[in-house]
Design goal:
The chain is of the alpha/beta class. It has two domains: 55 residues, Multidrug-efflux Transporter Regulator, Chain: A, Domain 2, CATH 1.10.1660.10; 121 residues, Response regulator (Rossmann fold, 3-Layer(aba) Sandwich), CATH 3.40.50.2300. Helix content is 41%, strand content 17%. It is built from eight helices and eight strands; from the N terminus they run βααββαβαβαβαβαβα. The strands form two sheets. Strands 5-4-6-7-8 form a five-stranded parallel beta sheet, sandwiched between helices. Helix 4 links the parallel strand 4 and strand 5. Helix 1 crosses helix 2 and helix 2 packs antiparallel against helix 5. The relative contact order is 0.14.
Length: 204
């Protein structure tokens, strides 16, 4: 299919139209949220009409959901800042349980919550978490697709990944992209194991 030159836009232009960072646009492209291609020089390009369609879906609440958390770009963890943690879980009751439980620990955590893969990728594009707690069974973009996109973008290697699944750990690990390391936890969620890992990361 031939695309007209006036229907082509850059990552920066797509980010402006969508109201997100260029990094988030790249994550969405890697996950297949919005179609893209690369020029011979390696620059990513988008169809302007596709980007505008996604922007309309965002405004109508049908696309990726903008989180209410920090919108000021990626935060780099240092000694004076809480450790960023992102939980991606589509079940509202369980997501609320995560929020209440992790906050009750009174640890220096910067907690972010997402209820689908779209908003999870958006949050990662803005606040790169030190720890990602991910349910694999998500609508639209599932956990495996998120992991593949994060691996392809190089973001995954800079974070700790904990996967929550009712599947056997061996089954989960064999379905992972090559080279991805993660801790697989069962359901119901073992919050004691999560806290143990959180405390280890805080101490490291």
């Amino acid at each position: 299919m031939t695309i007209r030159q006036d229907d082509i836009c850059t990552s920066r232009k797509a980010a402006e139209l969508l109201g997100v960072s260029a990094r988030t646009v790249q994550l969405w492209a890697d996950a297949g949220v919005v179609a893209s291609w690369k020029t011979p020089g390696g620059h990513r390009r988008f169809s302007l009409s596709d980007v505008r369609k996604l922007a309309q879906e965002l405004m109508a609440g049908r696309g990726p959901v903008l989180p209410s958390s920090d919108q000021n770009g990626i935060q780099e963890q240092n000694e004076n800042r809480p450790m960023p943690v992102l939980v991606v879980e589509d079940e509202a009751t369980l997501l609320r349980l995560y929020e209440l439980t992790l906050k009750s620990w009174q640890l220096p955590l910067d907690l972010h919550l997402a209820d689908n893969g779209y908003s999870g990728l958006l949050t990662i594009g803005q606040v790169e978490p030190r720890l990602l707690i991910l349910d694999l069974n998500l609508p639209n973009i599932d956990g495996f697709q998120m992991i593949s996109a994060l691996k392809q973008s190089g973001v995954l290697q800079r974070m700790e990944l904990m996967v929550i699944s009712a599947l056997e750990p061996e089954e989960v690990l064999t379905s992972m992209p090559v080279g991805v390391e993660c801790q697989v936890l069962p359901k119901p969620v073992p919050f004691d194991l999560i806290r143990e890992r959180v405390e280890q990361l805080l101490a490291s």
